[in-house]
Amino acid sequence: MNESIWTKLKDALLKFLIDFGPNVIYAAVALFFGLFVIKFTMRLLRTFMNKSHMEPTLKTFIQSLSIFVLYALLIFVVGTILGIEASSFMAMFGAAALAIGFALQGSLANFAGGVLILAFKPFKINDLVYINDHLGYVQQIDILYTRIKTFDGRLITLPNGKVANDDMDNRSIEPYRRIEIDLNFSFDEDFDELREIITNALKVHPDLVKGEPIQVWLTGMGDYAMKVSARCWSTSDDFWNVYFEQMEAVKKALDKNDIHLAIPKRLVYQGDKN
Fold first, then answer.
1. How is the beta sheet containing 134-141 ordered, strand by strand?
2. Which of 232, 228, 240 has the alpha carbon at shortest distance from 201?
3. Which end of the chain has fewer CB atoms within 10 angstroms, the N or the C?
4. pLDDT tier at 63, thresholds 50, 70, 90
5. Which of 147, 146, 148, 145 is nearest to 137 (CA)?
6. What's the rounded Cα separation, in Å, for the pair 57 and 52?
């Protein structure tokens, strides 16, 4: 009985080696050669990307995607040599992709948004941006999230799916920005005198953009005051420093000339008690 079982096992093993032995050897060779090709290909890819001016995050994304595709292709080739039908692989990958898609719907949206951001580059590291009611400098762009640092030192993490689909104001993309200071003055003030005083206060700043105008305009008239807008230009990098310094300069110039901003007033009429 035992000898019969061992004989059957030896016959089955011999038949397996005869039928599948060559395929196993070919598959092992293909696996070894494929691993070498993947390693060599990734080395060439990294060398090429290091010499290019590609975004660091995009480099990481391309490397990760390339490794996934190359290993998936290697598994497919080895499985085909072993006799696994291509349709079986397609069904397996399709089922896996469907399951992952349902489980990671939000992450896939962020992934797609990250691809769009890296491809179209609406902003880059160190740009000053206004996104989803947050103003700050871009610190990091990952494939799933974008991180910005606000002026008060907070680090805001934003999902790329939302970033890619909402309005985004990049305040560093243009070299120059216009500074606007809005003021309200009494109707009793002489507007020509106001224009001269404010213009003289603004034009002395050393970091203004040469060739760009300094303007003081009457932009509206309200119930109790005339609305004045003072405008000048600075570089995008110096915007906030120039803005605050120009505010101080205008305030000091108005104080020096004894000119005060308008204060809201209300007239209250009291009817005859009789």
1. 155-159, 145-150, 134-141, 128-131, 168-170
2. 232
3. C
4. confident
5. 148
6. 13
Q: Which two tokens stand for residue 226?
A: 């005339």
pLDDT digits (tens, 9 = 90+) for 13-42: 656 556 566 777 777 888 888 889 889 988
Q: Please report the domains of the chain, with CATH numbers, ordered by start residue.
A: 2-103 (1.10.287.1260), 121-170 (2.30.30.60), 176-256 (3.30.70.100)
Phi then psi dihedrals of residue 208, to 5 deg: -70, 150
Written as one letter, the residue type at 24 is: V
Measured distance CA(45)–CA(62) in Å, rounded: 9
**Regarding predicted confidence, which is higher, 197 or 166?**
197
Q: What is the pLDDT of residues 224-240, one digit of tens each?
A: 899 999 999 999 989 99
Q: Band of the pLDDT at 113, cuts 50, 70, 90?
A: confident
**Angstrom distance (rounded) from CA 136 to CA 149:** 5
Give the angle subtended at the CA of 21 by the CAs of 20 and 23, to the nearest 5°.
Answer: 65
Q: CA-CA distance, 142 to 36, in Å (whole number)?
A: 29
CB 171 within 8 A of CB 238: no
* CA 183 distance to own-chain centroid: 35
Q: Which of 120, 205, 133 is nearest to 168 (CA)?
A: 133
* Dist. CA 108–CA 161, nearest whole Å: 8
How much is the pLDDT for 165?
A: 85
The closest of 63, 165, 69 to 120, measured between CA atoms, is 165
